[in-house]
Amino acid sequence: MAKIAFIGLGNMGGPMAANLLKAQHQVAAFDLSAKALEAAVAAGASRAADVAAAVKGAEVVITMLPAGKHVREVYEGAVLGAAAKGALLIDCSTIDVESARHVAAAAAKAGLDMVDAPVSGGVGGATAGTLTFMVGGPDAAFARAKPILEKMGRNIVHAGASGNGQAAKICNNMMLGITMIGTCEAFMMAKRLGLDAQKLFDIASTASGQSWALTSYCPVPGPVPTSPANRDYAAGFTAAMMLKDLMLAQDAARSVGASTPMGAEAAQLFSLFVGSGSGSVDFSGIIRMIDGR
Amino acid sequence: MAKIAFIGLGNMGGPMAANLLKAQHQVAAFDLSAKALEAAVAAGASRAADVAAAVKGAEVVITMLPAGKHVREVYEGAVLGAAAKGALLIDCSTIDVESARHVAAAAAKAGLDMVDAPVSGGVGGATAGTLTFMVGGPDAAFARAKPILEKMGRNIVHAGASGNGQAAKICNNMMLGITMIGTCEAFMMAKRLGLDAQKLFDIASTASGQSWALTSYCPVPGPVPTSPANRDYAAGFTAAMMLKDLMLAQDAARSVGASTPMGAEAAQLFSLFVGSGSGSVDFSGIIRMIDGR
Questions:
Q1: Is residue A106 within 8 angstroms of chain B, CB to CB?
Q2: pLDDT band for position B4 (50/70/90)?
Q3: Does A186 touch chain B (CB under 8 A)?
Q4: What number does CATH give the domain B3-161?
């Protein structure tokens, strides 16, 4: 079993580290939050005094951090200097593609294998160990990371070179954000036109309007009993998280000169929704704003 | 077998009437285009001199016309006056919800059963008799229309009261138009980020980015061999038809005070694409515009 350093034990990192411990890995944990660190220790991790202390002697380093700037700071400020020769670096944070590639290049220069491996599946998936990992990095690094990631997730996909894990995630989530708002607009227009939501669902779900947003995560209560609409839009995947991913997509589009008019509109609409105080609501709850509530 | 009047024998109406003839119905045909009328006669229809002549003595009247104004003119100018007592009226045109409800109310006042029954499935579906009909109108009228529509389509759905067939179609197609552009944006951003199209497809098609636009009608060549992207965007469903439906959705949204920011953006983007001379291209070809080609 591997000696693993785990940096960042928040809502996602905490349960992910717990699953590594359940799989009999040794985990040295660090988080700026004493409370988060405490919970990891309670789950069986050893407490590290700082990032460098956690990383020292580890065969695998896993990070789960809020944004690109934290990833740059943690890797360039501590991990790359403290990591043992031959250590494997896995960044599970969802960050901008540029930062992911920048840090991966620095790791390569230091002679270390690294992958970016952002996740989807939320806190529920992290706890159940059913996350999807979208992984960017060289084949050899992916092959080393896969058995570790399999202790925390069910679906481990290699998306190509460094940064491509991030690229895959924001491309997927940009499609999702756009499609969800479009689905919300259709249901609210249907309501005003006197077309029953269940009728629209029955028709569109077997036609060209079908999408995961419609048939797995329907934004009106009723047609899909498991969707957040049936529990007053309790998240799920929060509107704030969707806004973060849509903003990362806009950063990426700008950096490579891609045109994303619908992606930009979706980012602006989620910005309005989050700005109105709905950041912690499930992202499908944007239907309330579309409805004028 | 029924005596049917069929008004409007264009790309869609022509093959639909041919399927009624194949089912041994008697069809009296009329079209302003001599060529379209000629083709229907060649398929076995009898030639009518005008709308009133076609409708006279018919048990069922079917119309397939370009827009709301034509439907108003044809019904209020001829059909309602000429139709036999007890005749069933079926308008298969895709038109604005307001016109559909206006004409249905006039038919009801004249004591005639009427349904709006717009289709999806395109010329291919019309020819093969596999169209989907989205039907609005009273239960009794739907029950009468169903066996007739079944000779031209495979999926006959009752969407509720008069106008709801149109409402269902534009709600579905608005979701489709929005989702398709979002999918195109994701693929073009992925390309510039160095993420392989097949990889993005493999990931998103089993994740929350999944949609019919992605998995049945993928806008890049390769992942879905039957999609128009693999035949240089030969339609399929033309960009001009998608623009028409998105504009009808905007009309409907305005008429009932529904907010459709993504629907409006999609309509504007298809307007740009069609305006650049690409109206006859498949609607998924809008990816060329997104790509800057």
A1: no
A2: very high
A3: yes
A4: 3.40.50.720
* Rounded distance between C-alpha atoms, residue B220 and residue B205, angstroms: 14
The model's pLDDT over A234-244, given as tens digits with 9 standing for 90+, comes to: 998 999 999 99
Q: Which helix H or strand E contains A103, and what residues bound it?
A: helix A97-109
Cβ of B181 within 8 Å of Cβ of A262? The answer is yes
Mean predicted confidence (pLDDT) in A90-103: 98
| pTM tops 0.90, yes or no | yes
Q: Are A221 and A262 in contact (CB under 8 A)?
A: no
On chain B, the residues whose CB falls within 8 A of the CB of A132 are: 207
**DSSP notation for B4-49:** EEEE--STTHHHHHHHHHHTT-EEEEE-S-HHHHHHHHHTTPEE-S
Q: Does the distance separating the beta carbons of B206 and A211 come in below 8 Å?
A: no
Domain boundaries defined on chain B? 3-161, 167-290
The reply to whether B3-161 and B167-290 are identical in fold is: no
**A41: closest CA among A11, A75, A6, A91?**
A6
Residue A99 parent element (H or E): helix A97-109
The alpha-carbon gap from B134 to the nearest alpha carbon of chain A, in Å, equals: 8
- Cis status, amide bond into A236, omega within 30 of 0: yes
What pLDDT does B293 receive? 83
Average pLDDT over chain A, rounded to whole?
97
Would you call A169 a catalytic residue per the annotation?
A: yes
pLDDT 10s digits, B25-77: 999 999 999 999 999 999 999 999 999 999 999 999 999 999 999 999 999 99
Instruction: Give SS3 for A166.
Output: helix
Partner A contacted by B179 (CB < 8 A)? yes
CATH superfamily for A167-290 is N-(1-d-carboxylethyl)-l-norvaline Dehydrogenase; domain 2 (1.10.1040.10)
What are the E-state strand segments in chain B? 3-7, 26-30, 46-47, 60-63, 88-91, 113-116, 119-120, 131-136, 153-160
Q: Please confirm whether the linkage preceding B163 is cis (ω < 30° from 0).
A: no
**Closest residue of chain A to B258, computed from CA coordinates:** A189
Token pair listed for B118? 């717009």
- Catalytic residue selected from A151, A169, A199, A244: A169
* Number of helices and strands in chain B (H, E): 14, 9
